Amino acid sequence: MLDVQQKELGNSKIRNKYRIIIALALIFVLMLVLIFMIPFVKYSVYIKAERIVACVGDSITYGYGINMQKYYSYPGQLQYKLKTEYSVKNFGVNGATASINTNNPYAKTSEYKDSINCNPTIVLIMLGTNDSKSYNYSSKKVFKEDYKCIVEDYKSLSSVNRVYLLLPINAYDNVFDIDNNRIQSEIRDAICEVAEELKISTIDVRSMLSSNDYYSDDGVHPNAKGAKRIAAGIYEYIESFR
Q1: Distance between CA 222 and CA 236 in Å, rounded?
Q2: Cα–Cα distance measured from residue 29 to residue 96, given in angstroms and rounded to the nearest whole number
Q3: Is residue 90 within 8 Å of 60, Cβ to Cβ?
Q4: pTM of the predicted protein model
């Protein structure tokens, strides 16, 4: 009987020891999460909503494939850099196109309406990647006309003082039917022509991602490191025109 009691006491001590180890491990993980998140939470709580940066685009803007995309997509990381001076809003839509006659035209999404109605101060537009797909693309002329209509919608808003057109990034081997040759040879040119005609600035996002190390494994979407470089590059443009 004594041996049984001693054995049970020993088992109880072992269980308590494991409980303590597990509790300490959970506390440690929670502390790491808090330390990691505090910079973002700090600036997402105290935002001056009267000055808004509207990030318009597709899954690259949304932050597809990025863990905790709210914070580590390029709009999320841009918010961190701008601190409380602007409220950065992510209006990215997975699979969205500038072209109207496709399965997911941006101009027909709720995000498009919300981005218009939020009275943005600065608008960042990054569309064109999904337009390169063979079943979405008609011609450079058609793409340019549809893209220009979207840009003019934002440019005409009384709240807007700057619109930037973000030139599409490279696409590597991928399963999304995105045609990098078409992006680089036609779509980028069309966007540059729109910028020249409307007298607004372009931002060459492609130059910010110097290698595929900044991409996720799918060859299309930037990873968190790539999104950070995009945010840093855009931040410099915004700062230079204060």
Answers
A1: 19
A2: 37
A3: no
A4: 0.81
